[in-house]
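Consider this:
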Amino acid sequence: DMRSNIKNVLLWTCKGSQNQKMDWADSWSLSQASETLDVIEESDIDRGGVIRVDDGSRCLDVYGDNIHADDVTIYAAKCNGDKGQVWKHEGGALKNVASGKCLDVDQASSKNGANLILYHCNGQQNQQFQFNKATNSISQPKSSKCLDVDMRSNIKNVLLWTCKGSQNQKMDWA
C-alpha cells in the first residue's frame, strides 16, 4: 500500500497488475519503489459491508457484538454498521471484517432450524455460502438451504431453512 506511511505489503488476489510484480534485487530502497510500482487505489480494497435482511431495515449481526468469541449466535439487528454487522465474502466464506471469524452452521447441521454462529474459520463446508441475485437470498451449498430470519424469536435469530423465497429469506449487500 504505497499511500501508507510504512508502505504495507498487502495479500491480494492475483491480477497480474504492475504493483504485484516483484523480483529479488541485490540492493533496493524505498525511493526506487515509488518510481516503479503502481499504487493500490482505495477503491480496490474490499473493506466489506452490511448484509441487509427482510425489508432492509435489519442486518446480519453478531449477538452482543461478541465478535472475538466462538459459538456466538447470528441474528438480524437494526442496521447501524457496527463491527458485528460488517462482512466480506471471501473464498466462499462470509467473514466478519473486524474479527476475521466466519459465519458457520452450528454442529455442521443440515436440518431446518440449524443455528448460525460466528466461529473461527476452518474451511469446512458448513462455512460456505452463496449469494443468489435472482432471489436475493443466501444459500448454504452443503445443506441446499437458505439463511432465514426467525421472525417469531425475540432476537430475530438467523437459521437455516428450506429455500422458499419468503420475505424473511431476502438478503443482499447494502
Notes: The chain has a mean pLDDT of 83. The helical segments are 30-36. The longest strand covers residues 72-78. Residues 18 and 115 are 44 Å apart (CA to CA).
